[in-house]
Design brief:
By secondary structure, the chain is α/β, with parallel strands linked by helices. Helices cover 34% and strands 18% of the residues. The protein starts with 8 loop residues before the first strand and ends in a 12-residue tail after the last strand.
């Protein structure tokens, strides 16, 4: 713990794609900071992009009771608002960094906590490097967040467990729905699941398998080159054996030459500031091919943003771990760490136990963790039992929503639009 001076303030931001657990991390940051004696905990509105425009709130004005914190933990999406904003390299725009640090100094900031994924950790990297260059005493620590589960050096990421639970649940319900309708030529359901480069989420669809459900007939991850003709042949052969075929595909599946299947459906899709092309239409394209080649009814199902916003189906394990990561990030920064990210270390799988540690953010930012090849079957169209043993503990437990008139109540910032 840093001693010898009066503790001043903490500022926290959320960035990247929201999750069902990201606000639990925010709750952990706030509670830990107040318990450690920091005067104010400021929240950036829309991350560093908003902070550069002096958009922030004092969280104490909005989190006044224990019930507020519990509501926050159960509220999906980013309570503070998120952003996809890339800081330039320090040498490319030092004036921007001067402006940002001037704002942080005006707020008497001691600790800067950023909750986000790979690109967000790049922000932590750059800011901590600039602090070293200029001799700033502000400490920068990242708290992990992404449903994609693609961050290296951590066992898994907060947000993934809840998304995996929603995916497995929804796939099981889709299978049940498809099974109930008997058609003369059968039908094929193609379910599109998020995952640009890594197939953790799509692999989680296999958790739907059990005594009462066979699970998907095939699962296709972006780590394995995809062949449209083989896919169609597989559907045709399966239709000879069963009335309803269910195929789960990652939005990021691509052919051996690197062409995204979604590009075959939509060649002019949106590209974000990170250069990431919006991947949508994979299921539509494949279901159209199957309908034409197999002459059967098809349905394309895209879970889309529902898989990252389904707080009603959140994993208690995930919500609790997200809170712990948020609190651990404050503790690490309070003890003098900077340029680090909190990671989770699995110490036991049965019974499941994790602990937190910290790692150098320079070794994490902009890297991608893929599903190991040995966790995919030899044919490349399903995951192994080792994959399921890894994921299953992360979806355990339920967290009941706080409801009003039968609908979940969420926490929001009153007058939010007036602050923008």
């Amino acid at each position: 713990m840093v001693t010898g001076k009066t503790k001043r303030n903490v500022i926290v931001g959320q960035a990247g794609g929201p999750t069902a657990a990201v606000n639990s991390s925010l709750a952990g940051v706030y509670h830990a900071a107040k318990n450690l004696g920091y005067s104010h905990v400021y929240g950036m509105l829309h991350g560093v992009q908003g902070l550069l425009e002096n958009r922030y709130i004092d969280l104490a004005d909005h989190l006044k009771t224990g019930l507020d914190l519990e509501l926050l933990k159960r509220t999906p999406s980013a309570y503070l608002g998120s952003c996809r904003y890339t800081l330039p390299e320090i040498n490319d725009d030092s004036a921007l960094y001067e402006k940002l640090f001037s704002i942080l100094d005006e707020l008497e900031t001691d600790l800067f906590i950023y909750i986000g994924g790979n690109d967000s950790m790049d922000t932590v990297r750059k800011l901590s490097d600039y602090a070293i260059i200029t001799g700033s005493q502000i400490r920068f620590v990242g708290s992990p967040k992404t449903i994609d589960n693609d961050m290296i050096l951590t066992d898994h990421t907060p947000g993934f467990g809840s998304a995996a639970k929603y995916i497995a649940t929804s796939v099981k319900e889709a299978i049940r729905d498809g099974w109930s309708l008997e058609l003369s030529k059968g039908q094929v359901l193609v379910i599109e699941i998020m995952g640009r480069d890594a197939g953790w989420l799509t692999g989680a669809s296999a958790l739907s398998r059990g005594e009462d459900c066979d699970g998907p007939d095939a699962i296709y991850l972006p780590e394995i080159p995809f062949d449209v003709e083989e896919f169609t042949t597989r559907c045709r052969n399966l239709l000879k054996k069963k009335n309803c075929v269910v195929m789960c595909v990652s939005e990021g599946i691509r052919t051996a030459d690197g062409t995204y299947i979604s590009e075959m459906e939509n060649k002019e899709s949106f590209t974000d500031v990170y250069g990431h092309r919006q991947l949508t239409g994979t299921a539509r394209y494949l279901s159209g091919i199957v309908a034409r080649e197999c002459g059967c009814k098809t349905r394309a199902i895209e879970f889309s943003s529902l898989q990252r916003a389904a707080a009603h189906c959140a994993s208690r394990t995930d919500i609790e771990e997200a809170y712990e990561c948020g609190a651990a990030s404050v503790k690490a920064a309070d003890e003098g760490d900077s340029g680090k990210m909190v990671v989770m270390v699995r110490t036991s799988n049965d019974p499941y136990k994790i602990t937190t540690d910290i790692k150098d953010v320079h070794k994490i930012a902009n890297e991608v963790r893929y599903v190991p090849r040995e966790w995919v079957n030899e044919a490349g169209d399903n995951v192994t039992e080792d994959f399921l043993r890894y994921v299953r503990p992360l979806i355990m437990g339920d967290i009941d929503p706080i409801t009003v008139d039968g609908i979940p109540r969420h926490l929001y910032v009153p007058g939010y639009h007036d602050l923008l």
